[in-house]
Amino acid sequence: MQLPETWPEWAQLQLAQLACEIDARIESKTYRATPEELAGIDLGLNDIREGRIATAEQVEQLFEKHRPA
């Protein structure tokens, strides 16, 4: 991964904005999920209820397959 100092200015600005948002959330001590995050959580919970989750063994096999040598 490249260091942010080598990124284009627009990417550095996005990173700085994200860091400010994270800092504000930490300072408030209350995390408020975005609607998109809540929708993702709901999808994940539904997958669990429907039994669509990977086993630890399946996850490890996937990492082994795609892990750099």
Describe this structure in words.
With 69 residues, this protein is mainly α. The chain has one domain. 67% of the residues lie in helices and 0% in strands. The chain is built from three helices and no strands. It is flat. The two termini are 17 Å apart.
Quick summary of this structure?
The protein has 69 residues and is an all-alpha fold. It has helices at residues 9-28, 35-49, 56-66.
Q: What is the mean predicted local confidence, pLDDT?
A: 88
Number of domains: 1
Strand tally is 0
Radius of gyration: 18 Å
The residue fraction in helices comes out at 55-70%
Q: What's the N-to-C terminus distance? A: 17 Å
- Oligomeric status: single chain
**Structural class by helix and strand composition:** mainly alpha
- Biggest β-sheet: count, sense, barrel? none
Structure keywords:
69 residues; mainly alpha; 3 helices; 67% helix
What topology does this entry show?
Layout: H1 9-28, H2 35-49, H3 56-66
